[in-house]
Amino acid sequence: MAKVEAAQYGDRKVYSVSAFNRGVAGWLARLPTVWIEGEVTELRRQQRWQTVFFTLKDPGDGSCLSVSMPRGQFDALRLDLVDGQRVHVFGRPELFEARGDLRFRALSIEPFGLGDHLAALERLKQKLAQEGLFERRRPLPRFPRRVGLVTGNDAAAKRDVLTALTTRFPPVRVVVAETYVQGPRAAPALVTAIEDLCALGDVDVIVLARGGGSFEDLLPFSDERLVRGVAGSRVPVVSAVGHEQDMPLTDLAADARASTPSLAARLVVPDADELRERLAQTRERLHRAPLRLVERKRARLETAHGRLRALSPRATLERGYAIVRAGDRIVRGSSEVEPGARVEVELGRGGFGATVEETK
User: Fold this and answer.
1) Which residue range is the domain that position 339 belongs to?
2) Angle between the 186-199 and 224-231 helix axes, to the nearest 10 degrees?
3) What is the pLDDT of residues 95-131, one digit of tens each?
4) What is the domain count for the chain?
5) Is residue 1 part of a domain?
């Protein structure tokens, strides 16, 4: 930090406004980062601004603190902050030297009580994991007769899933169960919707779908009742809740997880175009199969014929050997005939009769 210089007027040191502000800003920069609690007021966010501004108000005595945060960091949190909302803000103080304005530079923002929620969810996660609720992964049916869709009445989320399913596999039959997906009534309502779909009897797979939202919006999908309902469902469940970075506990209990509606459709139904292509290829193979079968059998027959010819007595005779017969017997040794006996000799081509003159 550059040294702040003061002008000397006799025995008095005098700082310029710029030097004073620079000095204060330097000292503030040395302070550690801290958490501050307050209510959001005067939230100002414009499309062209690179920074988001708001004021933290102490609900006890009305004390206020100006807060700023880079827009990219603010948008990444997806908090949907509104005036009057109680939050915890993490950051450090800074002084805008040109105007001498004291602000709090926010590095992160959490809704009030988020830490307690996270700790409770972690305890529940460990408890359910020890019970083995996250270990079951049943295979999804390849050709489901009927797909169940549990979703809210939000047109966008329902439309996205239905469009993805019907685009990928137009003949698909879908039964939609609309219910609460946010708030204290959501978890039991979602459990009931899953049970009702299972009771239909012809639903082979269920998609549990909800669009993105804040941490609090997605809390019902980490409710113990719903997590146990998903894990205990008679029908396999695909969890398509929130965005890629969201991980409610239903994602761990479901048989499969999808981060987008299109991915959920890819998991649940086959691709009709791919099926047509594979059917065409199979039909072509069946058309050529009889000819190939005949060729393979002809080749095997010729191989067997060649082996039989090589092992036949006729092949042996062709190589210069002969077969000697005495009556109807084949003579295998000289002891089987006596001098003067009549024998017949068979050659590779023709034969002749002979009389044994002597044996050896």
Assistant:
1) 313-355
2) 20
3) 988 888 899 999 999 888 666 677 788 889 999 999 9
4) 3
5) no
